[in-house]
Amino acid sequence: MDVLGYLRLVRRHWWIVLVTVMLALGTAALVTVRTAPRYEASVTFFVTTPSQGVTDAYQGSLFLQQRVKSYGDLLTSDRLAQSVVADAPLGLTADQVRSRIRTASTTGTVLLKATITDTDQTRALKTTETLATKFTELVRKVETPPDGNAPPIKIEVVSGPRVTSSPVSPQPTRNLVMGGVLGLLLGAALAVLRGLADVRMRDGAALQRVTGSPLLGEIPYENGAKAAPLIVGAAATSARAEAVRKLRTNLRFVDVHEPARVIAVTSALQGEGKTTMACNTAIALAEAGWRVLLIDADLRRPKVADYLGLDGGVGLTDVLVGDVQVGDVVQRWGEKSLLVLPSGATPPNPSELLGSKSMADLLVALRDSADIVVIDTAPLLAVTDGVVVAVQADGALLVTQQGRTSRSQVAAAANALSSVSVRLLGCVLNMAKVAKSDAYQYEAYKVVVPPAAPSVPADRAGSRRGAKAVGGDRTQELTRLSR
């Protein structure tokens, strides 16, 4: 994955970054508030040597630099800390004094700096003053030769002791900035990990790769789609309706040499919008002047009749068992050239009924009685009904809901179709998140249809042809209804 891919993952899971940054800032603020203020007192020593005893200036400089390193260790020694505690009652032990001392020396110089950090400003200054006095006395005592001559090393205080007027820690600005930066980095890392671990179908490109079929459409998510799933009325001018029309165009030209006239619409799981997609695809095809027949072959949980507001008590099941003729139960929907065959009564053996010879003969008859037959089938991974129907169709259209179905489930659904040599016409990403810029472009360019404008264009010349008399009386009745 490239850098842009990682950035997309961070943008997709922006809430993780936001929460992490807020938690980091809150933690930094809490630590800042609960940390006691600390003051620093410092003193700087200058280490020198008399001209007697070291004749070479360069060798003398190296000698003093080595001494400075040793004096740094001497400043934090137990002996010096004990002498400081013994000289001034500071309320600290020798170990506490030693832990508060920090030394620093600049390379190439003979300056040595001692810093004491304490929560008490006065005690920090007093400790530093005592430390400076005891340190110079200790060096003089250690460096004085036994004969009592002047010591070769001399320690002088050149700066301090002084204490800071304001606390050196905590530093609210620095802590908040560091907390925010660390929270941002941690949040971005978590967002990327969450994105890499997310196996759900997130975009059309991934859906196309997993199924190995063309992406025929991306249907955008709309808040009002659940209450009004069909692309009629006010929804006919929505971005969702335009996406369905693009799907209609792509579906008709997906294979111009072998066009599909019987299309099975299915999905991997229940609730991905396959029934809505079947209904809207049939409506869009009928709007273009095609004579369309919509069949509800989901005999376990039929929804087509409910969506279209039709009576679904008698339908496909009754035709297959021979109780009624197909022409008696096919219903015309609206003013469009759309005919609907509901599911009918729920049978005890849906798979066997859909795979029967009666179903095969019925599809042969209906194929010649309509330009396009759209079949709503059951989900592929739940039951075998969808595969049984798709085998008898010219091809299948796989509907996948964005962010709900995993890649493995989509792959399993595609494999279920390919294992029985079903022609997968393409896939559709349903309830997709569309960029605001794309939605704005459509809203700015869409045409508001006047109320008097016809909602259905004139039938094509080919749609005016009568259907062939195949399948007996039931086909003739269906032909009469479709005219």
UniProtKB/TrEMBL annotation:
Keyword line: ATP-binding, Cell inner membrane, Cell membrane, Kinase, Membrane, Nucleotide-binding, Transferase, Transmembrane, Transmembrane helix, Tyrosine-protein kinase
Membrane topology: Multi-pass membrane protein
Domain Polysaccharide chain length determinant N-terminal: 1-87
TM regions (residue ranges): 12-33
Region feature (Disordered): 455-483
EC number: 2.7.10.2
Domain annotation AAA: ranges: 261-404
Enzyme class of the recorded protein, top EC level: transferase
The reaction(s) this protein catalyses: L-tyrosyl-[protein] + ATP = O-phospho-L-tyrosyl-[protein] + ADP + H(+)
Pfam families given in the database record: AAA_31, Wzz
GO molecular function: kinase activity
InterPro entries listed in its UniProt record: AAA_dom, Bact_polysacc_biosynth/exp, LPS_length_determ_N, P-loop_NTPase, Wzc-like_C
Annotated compartments: Cell inner membrane
Family the entry assigns: Belongs to the CpsC/CapA family. Belongs to the etk/wzc family.
Name of this chain's protein: non-specific protein-tyrosine kinase
Source organism of the structure: Micromonospora chalcea
